[in-house]
Design brief:
By secondary structure, this protein is α+β, with helices and mostly antiparallel strands. The chain has two domains: 240 residues, 2-Layer Sandwich (Nucleotidyltransferase, domain 5), CATH 3.30.420.40; 211 residues, 2-Layer Sandwich (Nucleotidyltransferase, domain 5), CATH 3.30.420. It is built from 16 helices and 23 strands. The protein has a seven-stranded mixed sheet, with helices on both faces. A six-stranded mixed sheet has the order 3-2-1-5-14-13, sandwiched between helices. A hairpin with a 3-residue loop joins strand 1 and strand 2. Helix 9 packs across helix 15 and helix 13 crosses helix 14. The longest helix has 23 residues. It is globular.
């Protein structure tokens, strides 16, 4: 291999449970990947945190392995996709964390969020940032970090403390403290970014008590962030050419943000995200966020989050005895079982196991199985659980149609449950549009690598089409589409039952 080739891009996908380094060649193909698990600590009920040092160590380990595999002289750039909303603070002079990183799942700032609601700040915050009040977002976590540090607010005001999302923390450590930046997509998840102006919002900073001096500079997701420096196993001088939140990276990796290509990630829960060209954020049921800045322009995203999709199937498998099978046997069973019956015999399962997410947003809703009759067997119940995934995603799509720029030409899907062909076909038939499943699972890494490639080889985003992964397409049966609309309406009635509350506690 020639030393001048510089053909490889190493994409670090820093998730919640793993740090993965994925090496892509000059054609955009994944040639090797390295992974390190990441531990999660739950020191108190509702608290979820991770060691900031452990996040860095794992990330540097997998990057070093990737560099060693292809040779440093052949690495063109690093790219970073990261878990979103997780917040960390560190001392500017030493680089030592002031506390553990507070992850996106952590709810320790819920009381402060309740205060904001009580003070009727919800609409004000939503108009500026596109996001509802929730302990999920970084701003209330950052406030907690300063509150928990001796003279935290004063030291932050004087520039002695840095606060950031994980992309900025990794960049700081990769560049020996020379670069303190984040990208627009991660900034948009803090609840401190003005969605319309694309800069830190003074009113939000005041409301959350976060000094501007503690925050990173905001840069496009595609472009030079800095160079590696001072690391034991990674040579100096490798450019870091992109940073982006993982869900946003997956949307970019599917179809580069092409209008009408809506992404749905199927996991324990689901994120549905659609690219849009303006920061319209008056749809109560959805968040509006920055999808990315490709170096030329900002692209916004509409997003709806559903807490129980794959989780609904897991719960039903558990409840019907299927969970006693091995993971491989279970996956095998879940394909033929729903197809073995013509319908659910009128059964609907609304998996509001810890409440309903988008578009309903009711934390107190609880799950319902309705329509049971004597003939209902396991296959009908499993089918009802799988159908519930498709209806929930379709409900979010309906909410998205309120945005004047929203279109749906194809649903781009990724995540474990998408391996179920029956489920994918049902989703296509229900929505009446093609469902396109990526044949490569590392979409977040691919999205970040493509943004790095754009920075290395300036041109239009459309030039990256040739590097996109293959998709398997499920075409809708339009006759079945018509029939399923009735079932979808019946599902809505079942949802109404979960929203019902007794007049008095039992």
């Amino acid at each position: 291999m020639q030393a001048t080739a510089k053909e490889f891009i190493i994409a670090l996908d820093e998730g919640t449970t793993n740090a993965k380094a994925v090496v892509l060649d000059s054609r955009g193909k994944v040639i090797v990947k390295f992974s390190q698990p990441l531990a999660i600590q739950t020191p108190r009920d509702g608290w979820v945190e991770q060691s900031g040092e452990a996040l860095v160590t794992a990330s540097l380990t997998v990057i070093a392995s990737a560099v060693a595999h292809v040779g440093a002289e052949n690495v063109a750039a690093l790219a970073i996709s990261n878990q979103r909303e997780t917040a960390i603070g560190w001392y500017r002079d030493s680089g030592e964390p002031i506390n553990a990183a507070i992850t996106w799942q952590c709810t320790r700032s819920a009381a402060f969020c309740d205060t904001l609601r009580h003070d009727r700040q919800e609409q004000h915050i939503k108009r500026a940032t596109g996001l509802p009040i929730a302990p999920l977002f970084s701003a209330s976590k950052m406030r907690w970090l300063l509150d928990a540090t001796v003279d935290g607010h004063l030291r932050a005001e004087r520039g002695g403390i840095c606060l950031g999302t994980i992309d900025s923390w990794l960049l700081w450590n990769l560049t020996a403290g020379e670069a303190f930046c984040c990208d627009y997509s991660n900034a948009a998840r803090t609840q401190l970014l003005n969605l319309h102006r694309g800069e830190w919002d003074d009113e939000m900073l005041a409301l959350f008590g976060i000094p501007r001096a503690a925050l990173p500079d905001i840069k496009p997701s595609s472009g030079l962030f800095g160079h590696t420096k001072g690391l034991a196993a990674i040579p100096d001088g490798i450019p870091i050419m992109s940073m982006i939140g993982d869900s946003h990276a997956a949307l970019f990796g599917h179809a580069l943000g092409e209008a009408g290509c809506v992404k749905a990630t199927y996991g324990t829960g689901s994120s549905v995200m659609a690219p849009v060209k303006s920061a319209q954020c008056d749809i109560d049921a959805l968040a509006t966020t920055v999808a990315w800045h490709d170096g030329d322009q900002l692209v916004w995203g509409l997003e709806g989050n559903i807490p129980h999709t794959g989780d609904a199937v897991a719960w039903m498998a558990d409840s019907t005895g299927l969970s006693e099978l091995s993971a491989a046997e279970l996956a095998h069973e879940l394909n033929p079982l729903p197809a073995s019956v013509d319908s659910t015999l009128g059964v609907y399962f609304v998996p509001a196991l810890t409440g309903l997410g988008a578009p309903w947003w009711d934390d107190s809703a609880r799950g319902v199985i309705c329509g049971l009759s004597r003939g209902v067997k396991r296959a009908h119940l499993i089918r009802a659980a799988l159908e519930s995934i498709t209806y929930q995603i379709a409900d979010v799509v309906v909410a998205m149609r309120q945005h004047e720029e929203f279109t749906l030409t194809a649903l781009m899907v990724d995540g474990g449950p998408t391996n179920n062909d029956w489920l994918m076909q049902y989703q296509a038939d229900l929505l009446g549009c093609p469902v396109m499943r990526s044949d490569v699972p590392e979409l977040s890494a691919i999205g970040a690598a493509l943004l790095a490639r754009k920075a290395l080889h300036p041109g239009s985003t459309a030039d990256l089409q040739a590097f996109l992964t293959e998709h398997s397409t499920f075409q809708p049966d339009m006759a079945r589409h018509q029939r399923l609309q009735t079932r979808w309406q019946e599902w809505r009635h079942a949802v109404d039952r979960t929203l019902w509350k007794p007049d008095s506690p039992a």
